[in-house]
Amino acid sequence: MRILLTGAGGFLGSRLLAYYGKKYEVWAPSHGELDFTKEEETEKAVRDFRPEVLLHCGAISDVGACEREPELSLRVNVEGTRNLAHACREAGARMVMCSSDQVYFCGQEEGESQEAFLLPHREEEACRPIPVYGKHKLLAEEACFAEQPDSVILRLTWMYGELTEEERRKGKGNLAVTLREMIREKKRKTFLTTDHRGVTDVNEVTRRMETAWDLPAGIYNFGSPASGSMYETVRSVLADFGLGELAEPAEGKNGPRNLAMDPQKSVQAGVRFPDSAEQIRKYLR
């Protein structure tokens, strides 16, 4: 099988390349080899390589950067996705687009109960994201389906996993790195009682990607279900180490945020992720 992978320098993309590069013929072009914001260049690259599957992880995923440079975000995250999807349709390739739980980042509506607001999000609901990144990911999903209806879109959660030497040098971090440090140094840290979201082991996403590209076309919540608020999740995990008190509660200054995703569509399609807290415990053991 021939796979074209964008974003191979990123957290997920680099793991996909390492894992599937041993099993399939994978081309993971650098930006110099393929600038997917350029339509003709993209179409030629896809046509020449003739992939059966295109895994699109390339994006500007820094939420702050998208807020500061919305035009760049639009060009890369939306128009770049459109170009790749169009090229896939022309070449007869399957497109798998990595989207984000940020499309669900919306405010609590007037009169909406807390219970209703905190229900896990389903793929078919109308999204009204607040951040530029979430808005552009939603537009990218629409562009992807408009150009290549035979696409699979994966709404991913925040991910964690071991860091490479280069990632450590760049000061990268994630939840697992933070929790290991807390356990090792008995360090206290605050976590939000108002932030509800799933967190997923990047290796669990990587291994399931092979199933994802064979799913029926559509949008899928693709990651571990939330285990309550981030504070509840972390405290539950640390309690297994006898260190639950290291997690201290705090409220977000902008009120509640709910990025929790309902996994049922993926489960019914044969893809099941472990609960967030359950998998973090397993990972840290």
UniProtKB/TrEMBL annotation:
Looking at the UniProt record for this protein, which Gene Ontology cellular component terms does it annotate, in alphabetical order?
Answer: methionine adenosyltransferase complex
Keywords on record: NADP, Oxidoreductase
Q: In which pathway does it act?
A: Carbohydrate biosynthesis; dTDP-L-rhamnose biosynthesis
The catalytic activity of this protein is classed by the Enzyme Commission as 1.1.1.133
Single GO biological process annotation from the record: S-adenosylmethionine biosynthetic process
The superkingdom listed in its UniProt entry is Bacteria
MF (Gene Ontology): dTDP-4-dehydrorhamnose reductase activity; methionine adenosyltransferase regulator activity
Enumerate the spans annotated as RmlD-like substrate binding domain: 1-267
**Does Oxidoreductase count among this protein's keywords?**
yes
Which Pfam families does the record cross-reference, listed alphabetically? RmlD_sub_bind
Q: What does the similarity note say?
A: Belongs to the dTDP-4-dehydrorhamnose reductase family.
What does this gene product do? Catalyzes the reduction of dTDP-6-deoxy-L-lyxo-4-hexulose to yield dTDP-L-rhamnose.
Q: What is this protein called?
A: dTDP-4-dehydrorhamnose reductase
The species this protein belongs to is Candidatus Eisenbergiella stercorigallinarum
